[in-house]
Specification:
CATH architecture of the largest domain: 3-Layer(aba) Sandwich
Number of domains: 2
Distance between the termini: 52 Å
Structural class: alpha/beta
CATH class of the largest domain: Alpha Beta
Strand content: 5-15%
CATH topology of the largest domain: Rossmann fold
Order of helices and strands: HHHHHHHHHEHEHEHEEEEHH
Strand order of the largest sheet: 2-1-3-4-5
Radius of gyration: 20 Å
Number of helices: 14
Length: 271
């Protein structure tokens, strides 16, 4: 069980102070992975015994046990392609991908997809931002959303400065990134959040720095397929999200697609 699973399972039993600890470590996972009890206690303005009780409430023998677990999880997440290609059994890739698609189904269950889609449907402008391994998902989302609603822009690193000067509280930013989180992706998302842009995050758990920016986020499992992180979960969720936004826009989406199709025919876009 991952640390995010343990936090979720124990959430109803956490005291207000323990919830504050959970929020702190979700915003900065390195507090758990590399910090001492004293350092974490100082960061959340609580006591050493409270930190230890938080660890035991998550099912660990103590803080050291919790830290070892998080460090192991980090090590698995942060393996570089050069390491993965030497360590991974190729026969496990299909199983890993099946598990990842199960996380997509879970993210789309119930009202979760509608919650993610609502701010996208209502926004004045939609900015899409991603890390390298999640770029395929961002491209799929941009392509689909541009067909069903106006003012959708996929951000590149070189263009983000101009965007930050014009983005505002009527906008939404869909941010897709997973460990090893891209610095530009995270810092740009943080800057957009400070500008009152609503963040919709597609990431890999409550310890992600993106999850700390918003209540509108979902968790995907992103397995290594060979030496690289799989793009399939991000692309699958992006396509489901586009379908949900299109369904919620109804005639507006239909009319926009009809106009686009008419333009394609008029310009002979397709053979």
């Amino acid at each position: 069980m991952t640390i995010s699973d343990r936090i979720a399972a124990a959430s109803e039993r956490l005291t207000p102070t323990e919830r504050k600890i959970a929020q702190a470590v979700s915003a900065d996972p390195t507090l758990l992975a590399f910090g001492t009890v004293a350092h974490l206690a100082a960061q959340v303005q609580t006591s050493h015994p409270t930190i230890v009780r938080f660890a035991t409430k998550l099912g660990f023998a103590g803080y050291s046990d919790l830290q070892d677990h998080v460090r192991t999880e980090f090590a698995q997440q942060l393996l570089r392609p050069t390491q993965r290609i030497r360590q991974q059994d190729p026969s496990s890739s299909l199983t890993a991908l099946e598990g990842a698609l199960a996380s997509v189904r879970q993210a789309a269950d119930g009202h979760q997809l509608a919650v993610l889609a609502q701010p996208i449907r209502k926004a004045q402008r939609v900015w899409i931002l991603s890390g390298e391994t999640s770029r395929a998902g961002a491209l799929a989302l941009h392509s689909g959303l541009s067909m069903v609603r106006p003012s959708v822009r996929l951000l590149d690193e070189h263009s983000s400065g101009g965007v930050l000067s014009s983005a505002g509280k009527k906008d939404v930013a869909v941010v897709i990134d997973f460990a090893r989180y891209r610095r530009h992706c995270v810092t740009t998302a943080q800057a957009l959040a400070r500008s009152d842009v609503h963040i919709v995050a597609i990431t890999d758990g409550p310890l992600s720095p993106l999850a700390a920016l918003t209540d509108t986020w979902c968790e995907l499992a992103v397995p290594a397929i060979g030496p690289f992180d799989s793009s399939v979960p991000a692309v699958a969720l992006a396509e489901l999200l586009v379908a949900e936004v299109a369904a919620s826009l109804r005639t507006k989406a239909r009319d926009r697609i009809d106009r686009t199709e008419a333009l394609w025919e008029a310009t002979g876009t397709f053979l």
